[in-house]
């Protein structure tokens, strides 16, 4: 029918190849990391480990790199077409390793802000940003531990994996969106705290505010695109005919 042909044509027009999309997403992620580093180096005084505001500067860099970009990469591992056949174990290890790397950077980022606050006598955990950020990290740690136990350890029964898998997938996207919200609120909070000089107030939109606001928008776009890729039916790994546990055993057996 005409309607069917029109729908097929419109779908084809919207169809984006996965690998170019990933290349774009990777470039966007690297741009976010470069921009947060540039912001802290150029406008916020650089980096150190002396407990000053330069110690704090590690916080946004590590959080954006770990909790958003690396985490987003970990989430997309199973959308790579090469993962759709053969043993899943190497891809599980890659997925878990990327997530673990993201978690390590995130913990270091938390350590930086707590070190800064404690050395300056600033209270910890009083803002909405801090509550949301710590909640995201705690949820992330539970997600990683549960995923490791259910999918990487060989003694988890197949029924448990099947039961937990949709929960794991749901919280994967949820944690990424919470990470994005935490980063964007943190950028805004930092600008409010820092841009108080009469000629450089936030409301006057100096160059730093434009740069950091743009960074926040790019982080938001990155997160939305990752979630969109995760939700796209044609990019989802087809369910295997063989049980997950048998694939792992085959991989371990060579």
Automatic annotation (TrEMBL):
Alphabetized, the UniProt keywords read: Electron transport, Endosome, Glycoprotein, Heme, Iron, Lysosome, Membrane, Metal-binding, Oxidoreductase, Translocase, Transmembrane, Transmembrane helix, Transport
Q: Give the cofactors, semicolon-separated.
A: heme b
Q: Which reaction does it catalyse?
A: Fe(3+)(out) + L-ascorbate(in) = monodehydro-L-ascorbate radical(in) + Fe(2+)(out) + H(+)
Q: What Pfam families does the record tag this protein with?
A: Cytochrom_B561
- EC code: 7.2.1.3
Q: How does this chain sit within the bilayer? A: Multi-pass membrane protein
What segments bear the compositional bias annotation Basic and acidic residues? 236-254
Q: Where in the cell is it found?
A: Late endosome membrane; Lysosome membrane
Q: Which GO cellular component term is one of those annotated?
A: lysosomal membrane
Molecular function terms from GO: metal ion binding; transmembrane ascorbate ferrireductase activity
Q: Where is this region: Disordered?
A: 235-254
Where does the Cytochrome b561 domain start and stop, copy by copy?
24-231
Q: Which Gene3D superfamilies match?
A: 1.20.120.1770
Membrane spanning stretches: 18-40, 61-81, 93-116, 128-155, 167-188, 209-231
Subunit structure of this entry? Homodimer.
Question: What role does this protein play?
Answer: Transmembrane reductase that uses ascorbate as an electron donor in the cytoplasm and transfers electrons across membranes to reduce iron cations Fe(3+) into Fe(2+) in the lumen of the late endosome and lysosome. Reduced iron can then be extruded from the late endosome and lysosome to the cytoplasm by divalent metal-specific transporters. It is therefore most probably involved in endosomal and lysosomal cellular iron homeostasis.
Q: What is this protein called?
A: Lysosomal membrane ascorbate-dependent ferrireductase CYB561A3
Organism whose genome encodes this protein: Prunella fulvescens (Brown accentor)
């Amino acid at each position: 029918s005409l309607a069917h042909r029109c729908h097929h044509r419109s779908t084809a027009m919207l169809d984006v190849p996965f690998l170019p999309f990933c290349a774009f997403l990777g470039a966007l992620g690297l741009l976010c990391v470069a921009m947060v580093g540039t912001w802290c180096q150029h406008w916020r005084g650089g980096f150190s480990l002396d407990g000053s505001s330069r110690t704090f500067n590690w916080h946004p860099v590590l959080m954006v790199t770990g909790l958003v970009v690396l985490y987003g990469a970990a989430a997309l591992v199973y959308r790579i077409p090469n993962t759709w056949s053969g043993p899943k174990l190497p891809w599980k290890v890659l997925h878990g390793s990327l997530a673990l790397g993201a978690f390590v950077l995130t913990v270091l980022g938390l350590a930086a802000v707590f070190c800064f606050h404690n050395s300056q006598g600033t209270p910890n955990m009083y803002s909405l940003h801090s509550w949301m950020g710590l909640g995201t990290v705690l949820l992330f740690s539970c997600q990683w531990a549960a995923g490791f136990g259910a999918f990487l350890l060989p003694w988890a029964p197949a029924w448990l994996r099947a039961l937990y898998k949709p929960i794991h997938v749901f919280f994967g996207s949820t944690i990424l969106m919470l990470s994005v919200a935490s980063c964007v609120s943190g950028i805004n909070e930092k600008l409010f705290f820092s841009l108080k000089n009469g000629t450089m107030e936030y409301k006057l939109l100096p160059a730093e505010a434009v740069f950091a606001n743009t960074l926040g928008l790019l982080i938001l776009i990155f997160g939305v695109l990752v979630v969109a890729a995760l939700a796209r039916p044609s990019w989802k790994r087809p369910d295997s005919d063989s049980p997950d546990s048998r694939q792992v055993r085959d991989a371990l057996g060579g």
